[in-house]
Design a protein that fits this description.
The complex is a heterotrimer of chains A (204), B (222) and C (243). By secondary structure, chain A is mainly α. Chain A has one domain: MetI-like (MetI-like fold, Orthogonal Bundle). Chain A is 83% helix and 0% strand. Chain B has 8 helices and no strands. Classes of the chains: A mainly alpha (204), B mainly alpha (222), C alpha/beta (243). At the A-B interface, helix 2, helix 3, helix 6, helix 7 and helix 8 of A face helix 2, helix 3, helix 7 and helix 8 of B.
Amino acid sequence: MRLGLSFLNNLMFLPIVLAIGIVLGMLIAIARIKKTPVVSQIMILFVEIVRGSPFLMIVFVVYFGLPYLGIKFDSMQTAVIVLSITATAYLSEVFRSGFLAIDRGQFEAADALGLSPFNKYILVLIPQVIKMTMPSIVGQLVMTIKDTSIVSMVGVVEIVRTSRQIMQITHRPIEAFGIVALFFVLVCYPLISISKTLEKRVSR
Amino acid sequence: MLDFRLIGQYLPDFFSALGMTLKIALISGALSLVVGTILGMLSLVNNKAVQTPIKLFNGFIRSSPLLVQLYLVHYGLPTFGILLAAFQSAIITFTLNTGSYISEIVRGGLNSIDKGQYEASKALGLSWFKMMWKVILPQVFKRILPPLVSQLSYLIKDTSLAAVLSIQEITYVSRSVSSTTYKPIESYGVPMLMYLIIYILFSLLSKAIVSSGKNPARVKVA
Amino acid sequence: MDQVVRIRNLDKSFGKLQVLKKISLDVDFGDVLVLCGPSGAGKSTLIRCINLLENFSEGSIEVLDKNIKESRENLKYVRKHTGMVFQHFNLFPHLTVMQNVTLAQIHSKKMSKEAAIENAKKQLCQVGLSQKYDAYPDQLSGGQKQRVAIARALAMDPKIMMFDEPTSALDPEMIKEVLDVMISLARNGMTMIIVTHEMGFAREVANKIGFLDNGELLELSPAKEFFSNPKSERTKDFLSKIL
């Protein structure tokens, strides 16, 4: 029972993390394909550093490392921040390849019709990218859900942490962790199936 | 600026942590290749009794967090009487996890081979084993090399979770150095650099493989 | 042993669709049998049943006096002593021409590497490709690939060669080089079953022609008779469209 409730804590992160991830990820992707001088270089650095580092490592850096530099985040804030940066970095790559996959002609037609850059992206390009990359977006959603388990390491009260506590009291690890696994599977497996179905539709 | 003397002082620790990370990655990597190839090839068998457990296994691995899998192995197995050291639990978990992903990659590779290759081999009287070993698998591995390399890159990052079991790999050591020295930039900077260098090396390797794929690497056979 | 191949009452279905209906035919030593007919008639399926690349539900097939469904050993024997050439060549892309031709000799017939190479050189020379031992399939033209495929099958010293639309995937200018190889094989006495649309080739080389339509073997006659005096209406119809 307690486990069920604490799983909600895991899921709670999702809306905001995903929102940030999609918006910022999209912005970064656009900055990179436009090759804006300084900005895109910094973005590339950011994305590659995040993609190249283990999630747990980034969590430690933010939670344990930053305080020595004067920036203190509590565990919840750390969780939101790290989950968001991770989602942003990976989604920016997804969107970037999405943009590259769109026919050049779309860009040209939009320009020829005199659309402002803002409109061009909002009305023509972004909708196509999102439709094309839906499977990967769902995939990232799954990744984020699984990553929420790791924030338990810095004290966030979520399902994995709760289960550890339960295990210590009851000494029944299989039940404790098994149920945890089950919760995740019940959420993630359907999402993965949806992602696969979407993939088949898109490739038509 | 950066306290280089401090870095120098702890360099040995960082390097032995790197050694541990690589050790875990290499052992799990090699084992998961074996596991993954076997599971992937089993997917060719049309028997439901074979397919269902494999599908369940793969579904479970992909739908649950690696951390939870680690706990299940390390804390769960003892209830069946199997006591494992942290290192062993880590290896087992990573092997099963990466092995599952690799089996999907291998399965995709096998499905991508033209049916005609199987037919020509059979028509020439080759045994199933020889057909797989000399004709099908060489072609599969050439095709799946890029995703395989990516998977190994993920494995390196996965090893950081071994820190949860107090294994002295890079992530764990970075934290302990940081809490001892109170100097986060140096303590986390060096390990981060290590991970990033490994990541960059893998990316370069991947690019090299893809471009040599245009002039396919040839296989020595017969 | 009089016949190389004996097919009796062969039935085969893909799901609900019956593609072969009670087919019976014999192939004698030295025969060059051409199977023709409209697309989808079952010609390829029939030929692929002979070495059990396709399974069948009713009937029997004996090759070199061995019932191919009776035992694994029988099937192995048959596959080692029959050669097949495919429409899409099916060369092994990761191996050189030489390796393609020697692979089955070494691993299926258990020949020594030296003997296999010697034999391979002979076969490749006969199909006109002695310059290409170390080339890879993707460096060859379609006609060259098919000739390598023929050499690969011949290297097994088969008692019968089966061709499944060998020129259908080739550009027109390359069809002749492959047909020439097949003609010289026939002239040298090789027993052959050929599924093809090339009726000019059939007229030159075949001694028997079989016509399949809708899974039925409507006619099986000596070549001359087939062209001059076709028995069924559908055969006449087909011939008038082709020739």
